[in-house]
Structures are given as C-alpha cells and as structure tokens.
C-alpha cells in the first residue's frame, strides 16, 4: 500500500514539474502574470519622472515600448486622461476604442481576438492605469494561471486529479490483495502435499489464469497420488514377485538337484529308473521355463513400444486349432468339453499369436481352477459390431469379494495353494485383449459356474462378408465337413 501511495505522490509531483517545464519552454508568449509584471516595471521606470512633462513620459514609455514591439502600451492617470500611447497617427487608440476592447477579455482570448488588459499601478503615490493591447498571436497558448487565481480553487483541480489516480490505484491494490490471497492458498496447498494421504482439491470458481492454475494443480495432485499409488503397488508387486519366484523356483530346483545328484551317483541304476528321473528333471525344467516365459510375456504386454502384428483372420478357426491341443488333456482328466461355433466364420483383425496366448491362458485357468467341475465350454458369438468368446467351467468358482482383483498381477484367488504359477495368466490375457481394443469380463457363481467373456470389436467392412474370405485370411479351411468333424468330436464328449 505504501508503494502505491508513494507512486501516486510521485506522479503528482512529476505532473506539476512537467506542467511548469512545458509552460515555460513550449508555450511561449505573454500571459496575465507577464503583463502585470510589465505594468509594474513601467511604473517603476516612471516613478522619478515629471508626469507633467509629456516629452519625458514619452521618452521613458517609448523606450519601454521599444523593448516590447508586439504589445501596444497606453498610460492613463487616475482621471482617465491618456498620458502616453505607443505608435503614432491613426494607430493611436482612442479611449472609447480601448474601453470597448476591455469588454469580455476571456471570451475574446478563447476566440482568438486581440485583447486589451488594464492594470492599476502606483506612480509617484498616485494611481495610474496601464493599458496593454495584446494581439491574439502574442498570447501564450496555455494559461493555467487563469484557473489558479488563488489557493481556494486548488482543491477543485487537484481532487479530481487525485481521484483519477488514487481510485484506480486503490482498486489495483484490492485486486492485488485478492489475487495474492488466492496465490497464497495455492502455495500452501502445494507445500502441504502428502502423497501418503488423500489428494486435497482446491475450489476456485473463477476462469482466469489463477483459476486455470488451480484446476491444473488439482489434476496434477490427483496424478501424483495415482502415480505414487502405482509405484507403491509396483514395489509391493516386485516384493511379492521375488517372494513367489523364490518359493516357486526353490521346490523344482531342489527336485532337479536331488534327481541329478542321484543320477550322478547311481551308475548301477537300471535304465527305467534313469529315464524316470530324467523325465522328472525335464518336467520341472519345463515348469521353471514356463514361469519365466510368463514373466517375459507380462513385461512385453506392459511395454508400450511393443506392437502387435495384426492381420485379418477367422477367430473360429483359431479356436478350433487351440481346442485341438487340449483334447487329449481333457480326456485324461475326465473333463467333458463343448465347442460352440457360429455357422459362418467370424473375421477380425488380430495378432494370432497374442490372441492365442490370451485364450490359452483363459482355458488353462479354467482347467486349473475349475477342472474339479468336470466341464469346459468354449463359445463364439457374433453381433453387428463385436465378437464374443466365452470360456466356462463349473468348478468351485470365485468369491464375489475377490472378483475385482483377479486381473491384478501376481494375485491368486487361493493364496494358500502353491504350484499354481505366478498369478499373471489372467493379467496377460486382459492386457492382450485390451490392446486389441476389446474387454475381458468375468462372472462367477461359486459352485455353479464361472464364465470369462472376451469381447472384440468387428470392423465395419467385415460386417457383411461371407465366410470364404475370412477363412482364407486365417489360413485355415472352413469347409463344412471340417467344421462338422469338430462338432462330431464335441458330441463324443457329452
């Protein structure tokens, strides 16, 4: 506030100085003050003269008039008798003419006409009058003295000027205080950010720069908290991964080491025993290799630099190929299976290897966790703009409170079971489906059935295609007899 007041005072002083300098240097000419000073100067020169001698008066006044050639000078005594007039002949003004020119001097001045000014002076102790005839071009253009005849009018000129400066300064000061308060609130909020707590949102209903900055702060605060939670979750996942890897790899490594040492020491073993031990070692090595492959797959689908090599293909042909690999396994475990395909091929744009991995993960999950239900169904459906793949089992199911977490990395529904992998199969499947522009949902009724549903978008230019092009795109024949053979195989598994 003191800074604003000082600036206002400095402005007023500067304006006064500028007014004086401009008035003195730029606006040259005669004004009321100069004319009055001239009258007093002439009276001073005539103070010792013999006013009864016209020649002496004419000599002194003529010399003075010669110093001011642009001004007409006349001298009158107290009775109105003219004692001197500059010029000669017809140029000498008559008293009547001079009196007429004295009327309405202000109006004549502003209208650009010649003006006569009369000043009373004291010569020899007696009053005299000096009449100065000033042409309009000899007047000073700006005569501020006319408005400042005395100090009483000063407030009427200064107060409006002060108001013009002070009121905007006051409003500016209040505006700055208001803006500073909003900035201080934003600064305190920034200083009090605690990523371990909940994000604090500031409210600012204004749409100016600070309001926009406040909204950006709220967004930044939420993003920082989200990133912090993700980092904490990643740290917990890393810790859990190390723990699970150490647990899941320790047992097969111990088994491999034990059987390898047995083979190393037992040179007299029979051939069947050696083969059985070697088979167990290979099985455990394959198990460990499968764990590492899942880790690599998880890292790959989470890497934004990795892109899918998509191509046009028939999803039903891909499902036939996948299910053919599980027939013997399902037979060995006594699981009845069902493959339901539409009569016409479903053509999509997808990465064959990636989508096959996602579907195999879902089928593996159904066999591993729902195989006790003795049933597995894979269905393919088609709508105008999407294709849906369902994998159903009738095992023990998933409790409702655990459904929101089953797609999280390293999450296991049954935390107490070991040997079931790292818990990343569903995470990988969900990421692959998401990168195809689709969704992966789950619905489970414990003890009844669990259904994983993959929904993939269908390009509009495929909406009216027949099955020939789709089958050819997949590289797999879709002849009716082949599709019928699949259904026959399905019927043999009631």
Describe the protein in words:
- This protein is of the alpha+beta class.
- It has helices at residues 2-25, 32-45, 54-67, 95-101, 105-110, 154-191, 209-265, 271-301, 315-332, 352-370, 425-435, 467-474, 480-491, and strands at residues 72-77, 82-85, 115-123, 126-134, 311-314, 336-340, 347-350, 375-382, 386-393, 439-445, 449-457.
- It folds into three domains: 28-141, Beta-Lactamase (2-Layer Sandwich), CATH 3.30.450; 209-301, Helix Hairpins (Orthogonal Bundle), CATH 1.10.287; 311-491, Histidine kinase-like ATPase, C-terminal domain (Heat Shock Protein 90), CATH 3.30.565.
- It is built from 13 helices and eleven strands.
- The longest helix is centred in the middle third of the chain and has 57 residues, at 209-265.
Low-confidence stretches: 465-494
Instruction: Kindly report the name of the CATH homologous superfamily of the largest domain.
Output: Histidine kinase-like ATPase, C-terminal domain
The total of beta strands comes to 11
- What is the typical, i.e. mean, pLDDT? 78
Percent range for helical residues? 40-55%
User: How many separate domains make up the residues?
Assistant: 3
- Put simply, the count of helices is 13
Q: What is the rounded Rg?
A: 54 Å
Structural class: alpha+beta
Examine the secondary-structure arrangement and name the CATH architecture of the largest domain: 2-Layer Sandwich
Search tags:
single chain; about 500 residues; alpha+beta; Beta-Lactamase; Helix Hairpins; Heat Shock Protein 90; five-stranded mixed beta sheet; 13 helices; 11 strands; disordered C terminus
